[in-house]
Write a structure and sequence with these properties.
Blueprint (H helix, E strand, L loop, with lengths): L8 H11 L11 E5 L2 E4 L4 E4 L2 H4 L8 H13 L10 H13 L4 E7 L2 H16 L3 E5 L8 H5 L6 H4 L7 E4 L4 H5 L6 E6 L13 H14 L2 E5 L26 E4 L10 E6 H4 L15 H16 L2 H16 L7 E5 L2 E5 L4 H10 L2 E2 L8 E4 L7 H15 L1
Helix pairs in contact: 3-11, 4-11, 12-14
The chain binds pyridoxal-5'-phosphate.
């Protein structure tokens, strides 16, 4: 049945265009409601969502357990700052630390990925008394001053000018390029363990081990930006400590995106070495650790656990890769779990458009040949079948 709508698609688009800065290239759909991997629009259509609103809808859209937790918390106390203790905050921190590698023992909550990365770099500088930070070509770390200065991808550093000094660029996957920069002036090495925006670029497992060794040799803080790879996306809770990363555990892991299932929340997970350097008032943010966000974090992690989503990611990834081998136009599949980059001989944007016409949402990347899939962790075989049929039609 077609839902009643107050406004047409054209009305909503015209209003947004009139009153909002045009900072995003948008798909011409008006999202109204979501359920699992589906987005329902205000003109009665439904779309299979393989992008999750920039990798945010990890538990799927409006997961009932998360919705119930947010509703319940909103009726009790929406917010109080870190000047008081809170059961919601205590539970979220305990739950998050309990699923993290055992070396990461404390959490700091903030509101977004860029903020988590800013705080991670700040903690590294505080812990080492040094200023410089090495990051990698192709890595994306956010849009605030320090994070955008750490982003050696496309035009971002240019947008962020004047850049914060002390940011050095190494080549992702090339340990020699890091070794030539590593010395006692470096506070941190920060990386996306899988570079999503660059086109889902991976490095050999050895690279992570070598990075850890280099950091230990020079007393450098190793930071994994797991804003995309964290919270189950790769089929493990985190890339940190996983087999894909040689079991390496960094000193700091940053999280955001899927952590709150859509409620804005970011976090830094740190080890004892970092924690021992952080004192009262060294870090802070008004909204960090707010009760609604904390209820969303706990419920998100519970939903992933209760629904067996990590196992699902591994099983469905295998099935997806099998089915993709039937599609001649897909020349390579990059990534891991539900952070996948499908490489085409030419423009992925054309495939993105053709899929959208068949009511399937995917994502592009900085690599014009790579289409990104960042679906909810509850994606099923039947969704894959639908996608692969549509992809065959789109690329025939
Ligand atoms: C790997 C990575 N780090 C950091 C960020 C910044 O996160 P936010 O947009 O929440 O500030 C993003 C956002 O796309 C990201 O993909």
């Amino acid at each position: 049945m077609k839902p009643e709508t107050k406004t047409t698609v054209a009305d909503v688009i015209a209003l947004e265009e009139r009153y909002q800065l045009a900072t995003y290239k948008k798909m011409p759909i008006v999202a109204e409601r979501g359920e699992g991997v589906w987005i329902y629009t205000n003109d009665g259509e439904k779309y299979l969502d393989l992008y999750g609103g920039h990798a945010v809808a990890g538990t799927g859209h409006s997961h009932p357990h998360v919705v119930a937790a947010i509703r319940e918390q909103a009726g009790k106390l929406m917010f109080y700052s870190n000047l008081v203790y809170s059961e919601a905050r205590a539970s979220a921190a305990e739950k998050l630390v309990s699923i993290a590698p055992s070396e990461l023992t404390k959490a700091f909550f903030c509101n977004s990925g860029t903020e988590a990365n800013e705080n991670a770099m700040r903690m590294a500088r505080m812990a080492t008394g040094r200023e410089n930070v090495i990051t990698f070509s192709g890595g994306f770390h956010g849009r605030t001053a320090d994070a955008i200065s750490a982003t050696f991808l496309g035009k971002y550093r240019e947008i962020g000018k004047p850049n914060v000094p002390g940011h050095l660029e190494a080549e992702f996957g090339n340990i020699e390029s890091v070794r030539t920069l590593a010395d006692e002036t470096i506070a941190a090495i920060m990386l996306e363990p899988i570079q999503s925006m660059a086109g889902v670029r991976t490095a050999e497992t050895r690279f992570f081990r070598e990075l850890r060794e280099l950091c230990d040799e020079f007393g450098i803080v190793l930071i994994y930006d797991e804003v995309q790879t964290g919270v189950g996306r790769t089929g493990d809770w985190f890339f940190a400590g996983s087999e894909a990363g040689s079991g390496v555990v960094p000193d700091v892991v940053t999280l955001a995106k899927a952590l709150g299932s859509g409620i804005p929340v970011g976090a830094c997970l740190v080890n004892e070495r970092i924690a021992s350097h952080i004192k009262e008032n060294d870090l802070g943010t008004t909204f960090g650790g707010g009760m609604i966000a904390m209820a969303a974090v706990t419920a998100t992690l519970e939903a992933i656990e209760n629904d067996g989503m990590l196992e699902n990611v591994k099983e469905i990834e295998t099935y997806l890769r099998e089915r993709l081998s039937e599609v001649a136009a897909v020349v390579a599949v990059h990534g891991r779990g539900f952070l996948l980059g499908l490489e085409f001989p030419e423009k992925a944007a054309l495939v993105h458009k053709a899929l959208l016409e068949q009511k399937i949402i995917t994502g592009t990347s900085s690599d014009p040949k790579v289409l990104r899939l960042l679906p909810a962790l509850c994606l099923k075989r039947e969704d894959i079948d639908l996608f692969v049929d549509a992809l065959k039609a789109a690329t025939a």
